[in-house]
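User: Structure tokens for this complex, please. No commentary.
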Amino acid sequence: MADEKDRQEIIVAEFHKKIKEAFEVFDHESNNTVDVREIGTIIRSLGCCPTEGELHDLIAEVEEEEPTGYIRFEKFLPVMTEILLERKYRPIPEDVLLRAFEVLDSAKRGFLTKDELIKYMTEEGEPFSQEEMEEMLSAAIDPESNSINYKDYITMMVIDEN
Amino acid sequence: MGCSSSSTKTRRSETSLRAALIIQNWYRGYKARLKARQHYALTIFQSIEYADEQGQMQLSTFFSFMLENYTHIHKEELELRNQSLESQQDMRDRRDYVDLIDVPDSYNGPRLQFPLTCTDIDLLLEAFKEQQILHAHYVLEVLFETKKVLKQMPNFTHIQTSPSKEVTICGDLHGKLDDLFLIFYKNGLPSERNPYVFNGDFVDRGRNSIEILMILCVSFLVYPNDLHLNRGNHEDFMMNLRYGFTKEILHKYKLHGKRILQILEELYAWLPIGTIVDNEILVIHGGISETTDLNLLHRVERNKMKSVLIPPTETNRDHDTDWKHNKVGVTFNAHGRIKTNGSPIEHLTKHEWEQIIDILWSDPRGKNGCFPNTGRGGGCYFGPDVTSKILNKYQLKMLIRSHECKPEGYEICHDGKVVTIFSASNYYEEGSNRGAYIKLCSGTTPRFFQYQVTKATCFQPLRQRVHTMENSAIKILRERVISRKSDLIRAFQLQDHRKSGKLSVSQWAFCMENILGLNLPWRSLSSNLVNIDQNGNVEYMSSFHNIHIEKPVQEAHSTLVETLYRYRSDLEIIFNAIDTDHSGLISMEEFRAMWKLFSSHYNVLIDDSQVNKLANIMDLNKDGSIDFNEFLKAFYVVHRYEDLMKPDVTNLG
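Assistant:
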């Protein structure tokens, strides 16, 4: 019993340090606050993948009563620790991602055209902004065929992250 | 049929909605992690940059130590200093410098006509775009004339704006000529209608410091009332020794470089401390402290501030005791610049010196209060309360400063009262940051303009740019790590009770932070720096894989090599200070005496005999003198080639 508690404490302590590190990188004024627009980046850099909707809710949880545009570390830490402990918002496995592309590729060609990708990403789900769309296209689209071979794309991205 | 087909449709659109959501979610996660990696790289660059500056400041304590115990002044230099009146000095400059150098007919570069006009500015810009080099004769003449005019200027220039005459404020340029070209392209050349303030740090780091300085000085000479130059912490000959400007000059001007350096030293000290716009905006390079006294700063004799590394000595010193010999009976020939003699009026008081340091080196921070700037080693960190206090005290509305690289080229803090403006884009690496400038006009809010110099590589997608930055940052971080190898191993082993060769990530991070003194996100960076086994433990010796310090000679002991590599920048500066005639050589005795001082002051535990042995080996032609540039160049780091190319190299198992 005591051992389990100790182990838990160590894990929590480690999470705290990890969260602090990630937070501090965006704490430009070194006063334990970050711009609320960076919260999504911080949470994702810690390996979690909340949707935009889930992110919105999380921000509401860590914001001040009267939103200041800044999030304080004291409020962020407990919320983020719980997310890590409960292993919430797990990242998307490679095969699930591949399946998602295959669903959109109804004709099973192995690729999506640039226009199709744009349509899906900007009209469905939680639509991309123009900037996000352009960013994705710049790396994903093969300029010669004007399409994305999604299997190759995924492989490339996975290597990139590791 | 109708029902089922519509329900199929709904199902299909639901699945495609879910699929789109998955892809979007995944992509946003990927993009965020990319952004975080970019920030980590920037943090690495910044930490190391400031740690280097701290090293520079620490060197000043060493110089004081040296001065107090071992300096001996060359009699001739002493007489020379005491004799010359200012006007005599000026005439001497002209005779000694400019007039003695002829411009050969074969010279194809730009030829300036004094007195200078805007034609000369255009001429220079065109020439530098073609990568031509301005002849030393013109360089010296420009510097000499600039110094003459600067001497007439007060410590703070007061300027007024109007709707038809806005002023443009630019921050650090650091020798990045393309950024200056871009600014002039977007914002127009300086003129009576288009005034500029350049807020320091024109030189060092970039490859075209002298070209930038020439353009700024020539523009200043043509429009002395509309082109304003503030001194930055890099307008300091000691900083130039460490950060590249000195090397650039000696490389581009092999024959006359030394003369250029000499006159540059004097010019720097005459640069104004700051600019005040419309009596309400203070423009200075670094920042303020809670004791900043603008009245004193208006009065101080700014030209006595030679370098951050030459602090004022106590004014109640007994001059006769300056003639000391060190314990080994060898006397040092320290350059006249760092000697202690002279009446107190030759120097600033300690208080005055600190006031100027604060202006050139301080950084704003979110925390209230005023704290020593431990990151850089000089100046302070000042909080919003200090800003309010000082601005109110002098009835000012805003502080515009530079000194810190910002990803967007500018940053506003302290409730809108402090603006940082930084004009060198891609400062650390391609894609690291934008540059920016501000346009001010009384009665309107400041307008910010951003830009980024794009070379072919910059059109790459974000992930490639982040890769480049990341590789660069990790590379310099690993060089830091290898330079502290012995200390790190000792720290690791202290934690490794079971002698397993492994530590938890936490223990490893603790050691790294403590020994290297860099506040970095070690856990997030660990996968780039060490091998981690399946259990998540760090194989700490892998911190040193694929990188080693090249030994200059086989016989040299590794610890010695490591120490010399670690301090090579400091040693370079010390050698340069000792080398009075810029010959590049110091005597064996000087080397030994200097090393004794250095090792005792920096607490370096290296056997004297080892150093002697090394020095003897380095004295290649056995004439009792060491070419210290060769000596220092011999210590460098070798990265294993593959490590640099593939971002995903892992040496697991």
